[in-house]
């Protein structure tokens, strides 16, 4: 398909009632360009100490790369010291390697109006990623299926406040493990026109994801432009597994963006003290980003962060807690000092229900991502139970909060209209602004209008059934799915994608673990 | 009583099982000294424009002071232009008057270890203020009573994360309106040893509150030290009611601190655009603070803020929304430029239940107060239904979040221990930190341990009853009240306070409106 002329692709379309039309109005902004500064909580002296500790970790302790000899050879060639699978670096060496990474890049969506700009002042919201379970108020918790997976893609597509389709929005556990990625990538392409993520669970699956993107966007286009992200985890502390390095290299080789993410629960996979955990995360992330730059200098890459804490009574992971929230602010500063796009936090919680705890922890972690300057915010919607469940209701509640953040990131606009001097002269002391000319001229854009929050009088709320926000969200997701209309896709592309999926599936026996 | 020797007061004690002992360990910090900077979202140029607009409002529109001729005369004497009840000021004049106000001051508590420092880097949490209704999960919404009032004081006293007893924690609607303040102030004094607020609903009630404080602390002490706050509202837009100015002056006259708070719902009591609403709030607050400084130069005063928004579909007030959250950050910058202590936001919400909406909106507004540099945070716990209800459950949930904020405001500590270089050498790549010497040495203080959040595995959570956080909070407040032990108070002081209350009550007929 990659050799087909773009014109040819336009001739027929499949499924969706709406034709993909570059001029059609989209239902929300493609992404946010922030109008408020980042919140820099740490001073220069302490930042230098953390950076120096990261460099000492890389020089004096080093980092293991397991089962990827090519990667070890790459580092050796670049001048690192390699001893077995242990790699150590002279201070400053990794930073030097990172200089080829772009500060900002575009991830193209198949709807060009939906392409997202990652880096700089830009903020992109993507759904939660990786839960084996799904949950809703009607059916409770259960294993995720391909139908659930498709539902979350449809809901993200329909939501004006999510800019990105995400990746493994839930595990489709009814599909064999070795074939899931094909159905997942196809579903992102088919049921949404927003940008998406591909598989990283093996090099071959990463390459399948990229190959399917070549069918959708054209081979040459993909070689020159980023169209897919792969979220790659460090096996903290200080261990890179070959599965991950090979996937990261596959994305970089194809000029696609790896998101490099250590997952550190302080006290388990890193020091229990924030400063040390941050230094470790910085060391691990820098090395991961360096792998992509050695594989293909200039390939887009995202500096990721997934700092969290644990219950020191039970050893359980905790999310949305204050220490990682404030620690993430420092991570943001470190990423900016490397001129790398940043991925941070999201709507984290350990709650099992979309209740008060869930939203308290979610807002704490999401605002930390917003303030720390994160450019790509995975887990923006749906995260429940320490990432074990993807919640239909919380998805809608979180997405609504993402809407509020559009207003928040707009900051306080100061100009003659907003300063309202004329209004002060019109409405004298003790007067009322409701009917004033200034209010009339500005009210439609003044405040974010939540679709979940109830702000009616108590009596109206009782008459309407005394619902809590989770119950209202339950109604909202059902409406969103009922109203869903697929974006159009031309039949030739769709056929080619399905053909690829079917051929690959036929070539393998099912694996369930 | 003010003439009694302090020694005499110690001889007997009433009620409480615990003796007031200045050396007794208190159950939480007296207040927080923040270790993270404020979040300054607006640049110099725009701040100057907002300040200039506030000055223009004061010069070109002016502000009305209704029913307080003494206050008008004070302003006239100070050089303002007074025309009827309209006061206008030359640009810069009000700022000049404010120069006598202290940048920071101590509000003394009757337990000296509980005295709070207001201003500078300090943060003080006080419960919500002013709800006519109370609510709990068992009995639903009902009018507040004196018993509810006392309960919330007891809960705030028992809570390690609330530093202050607050003021009208709920309206005790079973007590006549003209006598409520006596029971309220007595309850703060008797059931807590934390600092508290007095009445502002009339000059006489303000003076009663102060007079009772003289009984508790001694007359001379009160003249030289702040022991009580009064929360005084502007009748926005640009109108100061005499009831409020007289109360503010009563506090200042006695060297006690007025909190000066405009309550602006953008589009109703001020412009619908943030910049204008902020300029108006700034003008109103500056004038209120100036009243205290003209009454008694050097009297402590707090620059307050209660910016909020409204639903432009229904006209209902909205709380915890993004626009006031970001606007408050600017208010913080303006207050600091005047060198005044700041009161901002709190745990706002319009939700009728302690649900997801409630905590999402609460955290949004509370973090805005934290980031904007608020020194005194009223409405930290219990706020529900746009301030119409004080919720027992939300009180516990919010207070628990105040605990989390203690860790958050501690920032990221950077030293040899927290950087953990030894730990990196002990735990090699791929190892585990759980049993490491560094974890053992640091784990008890590493992470905030929430008493409400559930972070157990799903199965344990199901076994424990599948509770949501509101249900757990319901258990917590009952335990808090059951375990409550009153702080000791010497009998002579208690008798004198009760005598004052009884004499004042006997001197008036009941008024119910």
UniProtKB/TrEMBL annotation, chains A, B:
It comes from the Bacteria. The keyword Transferase applies. One of its GO terms (molecular function) is methyltransferase activity. InterPro entries: MttB-like_sf (IPR038601), MTTB_MeTrfase (IPR010426). Keywords: Methyltransferase, Transferase. It holds the Pfam family MTTB. GO terms for biological process: methanogenesis; methylation. This is Methyltransferase.
